[in-house]
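Module 6 notes. Inverse folding takes a fixed backbone as the condition and produces residue identities as the prediction. Think of it as a translation problem where the source language is geometry and the target language is the twenty amino acids. Below is one complete input and output pair. Work through it position by position during the lab.
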């Protein structure tokens, strides 16, 4: 017996992807509202496919606001009222997701493959400390909300041969600190 197609689940997934694009400044508020309006009017799977293509094109147009691929195998690290230390391992460019909720995550990054490795960091009433070796280029796209993001001065080296650490996420009433060693 086949599972019936649920268009409402597809609409919700598209709206979530669109919200993520808006939160990362891939699209502006007018574009967001326009596409959400289309999503609410969708009635067929063909229309869903068209909106999916629009969302994918938005991602491709703006490589700097890279959206993390949804990967259930990506490592997830949670520090909840506790302290945790982790070494980043890049799996197809994905370094994992880190959440500090009233806790501390210490992330150690000393050996990355060539190319871009993405980590997603959220610090809510907590602290995330990212320790990065000097031979890694850092691209910081984290957003502070009533908090601080502390980074070293020499964060963006122009050497193209270096591996790149791409950091996304938010700090809400918490801090994200990036240190060079």
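Target side of the pair, the amino acids:
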């Amino acid at each position: 017996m086949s599972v019936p197609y649920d268009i409402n689940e597809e609409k919700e997934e598209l709206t979530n992807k669109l919200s993520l694009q808006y939160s990362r400044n891939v699209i502006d508020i007018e574009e967001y509202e326009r596409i959400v309006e289309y999503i609410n009017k969708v009635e067929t799977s063909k229309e869903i496919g068209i909106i999916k293509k629009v969302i994918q094109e938005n991602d491709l147009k703006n490589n700097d606001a890279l959206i993390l691929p949804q990967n259930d195998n990506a490592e997830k690290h949670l520090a909840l009222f506790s302290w945790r230390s982790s070494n980043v391992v890049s799996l197809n460019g994905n370094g994992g997701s880190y959440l500090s909720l009233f806790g501390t995550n210490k992330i150690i990054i000393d050996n990355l493959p060539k190319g871009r490795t993405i980590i997603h960091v959220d610090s809510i009433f907590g602290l995330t400390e990212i320790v990065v070796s000097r031979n890694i280029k850092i691209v910081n796209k984290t957003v502070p909300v009533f908090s601080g993001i502390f980074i070293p001065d020499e964060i963006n080296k122009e050497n193209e041969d270096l591996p790149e650490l791409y950091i996304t996420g938010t700090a809400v009433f918490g801090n994200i600190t990036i240190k060079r060693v």
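Reference fact for the lab report: The chain has three helices and ten strands.
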